[in-house]
Amino acid sequence: EWGLATDNAEHLENADTALRSAVDIFEKTEGAQGSNTALARLQLARLMGARGQVDEAVAEFTRAANIHINNEGAQSSQVGDVLWYAGNMFVDAERYDDAIEVYQQAVEIYKAAYGNEHSEVGETLGRLADAYRAKMESKKAIETFRQAIAIQSKHYDADDDVILNLRWEMGRAYIDADDAEATLAIFHELLA
Questions:
Q1: What is the mean pLDDT of the chain?
Q2: What pLDDT score was predicted for residue 148?
Q3: Which of 85, 133, 135, 151 is most exposed, with the fewest beta carbons within 10 Å of its own?
Q4: d(CA 25, CA 168)
Q5: pLDDT tens digits, 137-164
Q6: At what angle do helices 77-92 and 54-72 cross, to 10 degrees?
Q7: Are 62 and 79 in contact (CB under 8 A)?
Q8: What is the CA radius of gyration of the chain?
Q9: How far is the C-alpha of 54 from the C-alpha of 73, rounded, in Å?
Q10: Could you give the CA distance from residue 34 to residue 89 in angstroms, rounded to a whole number?
Q11: What are phi and psi of 75, to 5 degrees?
Q12: How many whole angstroms separate alpha carbon 18 and alpha carbon 129?
């Protein structure tokens, strides 16, 4: 996967130009439905999202997803990846309803592609729980964090940062829900 360096504003314009050129080159060399064209469009969408160009990014995410749908089918993990990145962008833009929708779709696609207990399912459930929490839907956040922890516990040790971060965020969701007893219990376990 191509990385994005979006932390330096002066490089953003060069990155935009380079990614648009990559899309053009790949469309000419492998066609509009090529896998590298999809990857270039995905990276362009991520860059647009990082620059706050959410509507333009959505169009590029859609183009990238449609290439994968045409090539691999609607339940391919690549479609899930596009949705996952779109969800991250929506969270950054504070468009939580949109984030929740695409994370839910990504979860179902990852389940179909990898199985219900795969770490991609768990990671995406964690992102979904974060979106619920940001939207102040504490009960949904807590339940979704529980699901994420149950899956990720099959892939990571209890003291791994992945599990600890999920449990910490679930504790914060308990705070949001005004559940003092559960909040104290989870933070006590984390600090023990």
A1: 93
A2: 98
A3: 135
A4: 45
A5: 999 999 999 999 999 999 999 999 999 9
A6: 170
A7: no
A8: 18
A9: 25
A10: 24
A11: -100, 20
A12: 35
pLDDT tens profile 75-106: 999 999 999 999 999 999 999 999 999 999 99
Residue 173 CB contacts under 8 Å (≥ 6 apart), including other chains: 129, 132, 133, 138, 141, 142, 145
Q: Residue 61, class by beta-carbon neighbours within 10 Å (0-12 exposed, 13-18 middle, 19+ buried)?
A: buried
3-state secondary structure the chain: CCCCCCCCHHHHHHHHHHHHHHHHHHHHHHCCCCHHHHHHHHHHHHHHHHCCCHHHHHHHHHHHHHHHHHHHCCCCHHHHHHHHHHHHHHHHCCCHHHHHHHHHHHHHHHHHHHCCCCHHHHHHHHHHHHHHHHCCCHHHHHHHHHHHHHHHCCCCCCCCHHHHHHHHHHHHHHHHCCCHHHHHHHHHHHHC
